[in-house]
Write a structure and sequence with these properties.
Helices cover 47% and strands 8% of the residues. By secondary structure, the protein is an alpha/beta fold. It has one domain: Rossmann fold, CATH 3.40.50.1110. Strands 2-1-3-4-5 form a 5-stranded parallel β-sheet, covered by helices on one side. The protein is globular and about 55 Å long.
């Protein structure tokens, strides 16, 4: 009886899996799992200032194994790891992001990625453009054209490439979570570490000029996100995250603090924050792959 029961459960699970794939095959949203992926952007995609086994302590603080896009840390459960779990063959992943990059640097990254022949390219860019103070934030029109040029390079190299464009986080929340109440460690680092002074200069000040500067900073991030959405809509295979990252709530645990790394700057995502970015990317824009992964997990269980 036990054997019959086990066989019956296996048949039912496989049938459910086949039905799931059949439904996906008929969906306009269904896409093949990529064989090669690349990730572009800045320090966020490089896993900068995260912590864990193998992460450096200096002078370079990049830890790509914790990247939301291409990381291999199971605790992050990156897009790469999720795709690899449902891929019929090992996935090849390139992390072409560069810490400190702005949109002007995206073209060179796109050229590098294009030579790698990816089926999927993930992009997170714009935080450094907003944080710039010398000479100031990148003009929105310039930002838009820089991103458009990078996407055009990718599409010109491969018209079948899928591009996932992620929104910029609502960075103003950083000031809120670390100043209400004030965190002395954050305040001790933001100035000396020159962390996003366009937003975090004089973080406790309530002077009208400082309040206006913070409001202008948030308005600029929103304008960049609108530009990203607009550019993405111009490319048939570009997938916009529909503000998933911008709308994601994050806590102090999701930011690099002294609780998780001695080099904390109280700005970059922690490993926990990277996991949230991975989830935002996966659940919002790859829901067909999410169903495949769930079906596989159910069948294996």
């Amino acid at each position: 009886m036990a054997r019959i029961s086990l066989l019956r459960r296996t048949v039912v699970a496989l049938a459910a899996l086949l039905i799931s794939f059949a439904l996906l095959a008929g969906s306009a949203q269904a896409t093949k799992v990529p064989r090669v992926m690349a990730a572009l952007g800045d320090s966020i995609t490089r896993g900068f200032n995260t912590s864990g086994p193998g992460c450096p302590t200096g002078p370079s603080l990049d830890c790509p194994q914790n990247s939301w896009a291409t990381g291999t840390n199971p605790a992050v459960d990156s897009v790469r790891e999720r795709l690899d779990a449902i891929s019929p063959q090992p996935l090849t992943a390139y992390n072409d992001a560069v810490s400190g990059a702005r949109a002007t640097d995206l073209l060179k990254q796109a050229e590098t990625a294009a030579a790698q022949s990816p089926d999927l390219v993930l992009i997170e860019i714009g935080a450094n453009d907003a944080c710039a103070t010398n000479p100031g934030p990148t003009p929105t029109a310039t930002f838009r054209e820089q991103v458009r040029s990078a996407l055009q390079v990718l599409v010109s190299a491969n018209k079948q490439v899928y591009i996932q464009l992620m929104s910029i986080p609502d960075i103003n929340n950083l000031r809120t979570i670390f100043t209400e109440p004030p965190d002395p460690n954050a305040l001790a680092r933001w100035g000396p570490f020159n962390v996003c002074q366009g937003l975090l200069f004089e973080p406790l000040s309530t002077a009208p000029a400082d309040e206006e500067r913070r409001e202008a900073f948030r308005a600029q991030v929103i304008a960049y996100n609108e530009a990203l959405e607009e550019v993405c809509s111009e490319f048939k295979r570009c997938i916009w995250d529909d503000y998933a990252v911008f709308n994601s709530g994050f806590t102090t645990a999701d930011v690099a603090t002294v609780a998780n790394t001695p080099t904390a700057d109280y700005f970059h995502p922690s490993a926990s924050g990277q996991a949230k970015l991975a989830e935002a990317a996966w659940s919002t824009t790859f829901n067909d792959w999410q169903r495949r992964r769930s079906a596989l997990a159910h069948a294996r269980g």
